[in-house]
Amino acid sequence: MQGQKQFTDKVVVRFRLSERVPRHNLYRRLDEVLDLRFLYEETQALYSHTGQPSLDPVVFFKLLLVGRLENIASDRRLLDHCAMRLDILLFLGYELDEELPWHSTVSRTRQLYPATLFEHLFDRVFHLCVAQGLVAGETQAIDSAPVKANASLDSLCEKQEVAPPVLTVAGQPAQTPTLPAAAPLSAPAHQLRREAARKAKHGPETGALGGKRPNARLVSNKTHYSPSDPEARISIKPGKARALNYLCSLAVDPAKGVISHIQADLADSRDSLHLPGLIERLQSRLLTNEVPLREVVADTNYSNGFNYAFLEQRGLTGWIPTSKLYKPSIEGFTYLPEENAYQCRAGKLRPFRNYGSTPDGGWQRNYRADYKDCTRCPLKSFCTPGAPQRKITRTAFDVPYSRAWQRQHSRQGRYMRRVRQSTVEPALGQLLPHYGLRRLGTKGQAGAHKTMLLAATAYNLKKLLKHRVKQPQSMALVIQPDHLQATNSLFWRA
Fold first, then answer.
1. How far is the CA of 469 from the CAs of 106, 124, 131, 257, in angstroms?
2. Per the record, which residues fall in region Disordered (predicted)?
């Protein structure tokens, strides 16, 4: 006989939430591992001793962790989702008939709490991973990826010209080099004129098929800003469209893929500029957990002579490939370290003259021969045909750069390249699309930093819950000497 289920919307008198959630549930196991009671003491100074009770700090951070684990970036969607899940209600400590906080309360609380509080939560979870043996610490892989900001390119506004205010000193007008506090809304006049001349020179923007697009907007971080999020920057990644982004820089431990550090940087700066600050904070966290750091692995975007020297100064080995433009030696010239000069094929010296700067802000050393040595040289037509004398420029950190180049072309260097590809790239591939980092729901660099810290914390908690300590089970068979002789006789008799 065919069965038909009849539903009656009745009031259940006896119902216990803990009996409906199984013991192996993710949030039930997470509640057993994670202890957030330290948040009460750290947030006590942020509240007054009078007034209405605020949102529980423990409930607030549990809500944010649920949003990262469920890949929900919107506070409205997050609270609607939590109201429909029995396991999440048990994790938050809410009954079925108890209303969850309002979404605006969650947003205001996020703005109230400083980023250091989110960092303390990340440190606590990272300490749990270290205690369970998930972190080796000797090698750390570093990489970065752009994350879309909560702003649109259609809302960009042009920066206005700003001139230094005129002040009078002893009855005479004097110019002061100070600028107003609203720096993102303004730009120096000479910078705007230079950008306008560059746009006029290039004309309309060229489309993908080579055609002209007269209505296209030529925007840049020097001339435009986002009024909704002034700290968001325009960045371009090869193969993707231009967008307002933040830069997510992180370090991953190769042992089990645990994220050891994460930070939000401005997207219009180079990756190599953020390495020194990232290493200092990473090394401090590892030393706090008594984990040594000896090697750093990164890609070519972090290649910089200053970074190589910085890592060597801190006693670290940097497995960072050098730039393709770097040459370990110059054809036809021999470097003499005692004299700090280059010797050409004719036996003439190119001594060190002075220091200079590169277009990207780096330092370089200039070597130049005397004018009479080059003009009278019979090899001038082969050595320097288009200039009166030969000039050699080398990076100011040529020695650590050369050592990095040798490590790159070694067998160990090729192995460390594979270590980076199998460690940090899978972490980014999971963190960005599956932990609410496809697009930020907050504004400002501080808000982006808090969101990235929560995503990394949720990622490490997943690693911690999946880890199982394998207890080796071995059974030893002890044979007494009397039985051993009997066993041998039986064996040989057979």
1. 37, 20, 12, 16
2. 199-233
C-alpha separations of 36 from 41, 170, 222, 378 in Å: 10, 61, 44, 78
Strand partners, 355: 365
Average confidence (pLDDT) over 406-426: 92
What is the C-alpha to C-alpha distance for residues 144 and 263, in angstroms, rounded to an integer? Answer: 10
Give percent above pLDDT 70 in the chain: 80
CA dist 150 and 443 (Å) reads 6
Q: What is the pLDDT of residue 330?
A: 80
Give residue 452's Cα distance to chain centre. 9
Average pLDDT of every residue of the chain: 83
Q: Give the contacts of 223 (CB within 8 A, at least 6 positions apart).
A: 158, 159, 187, 191, 192, 195, 196
Burial of 177 from C-beta contacts in 10 A (0-12 / 13-18 / 19+)? exposed
Q: Is pLDDT at 377 greater than 60 in this prediction?
A: yes
Q: Rounded to an integer, what distance in angstroms lies between the CA atom of residue 93 and that of residue 124?
A: 21
Give me the long-range contacts of 418-424 (CB less than 8 A, separation at least 24).
419/139, 419/141, 419/254, 419/297, 420/141, 420/143, 420/297, 420/298, 420/299, 420/319, 422/254, 423/141, 423/252, 423/253, 423/254, 423/257, 423/297, 424/141, 424/142, 424/143, 424/250, 424/251, 424/252, 424/297
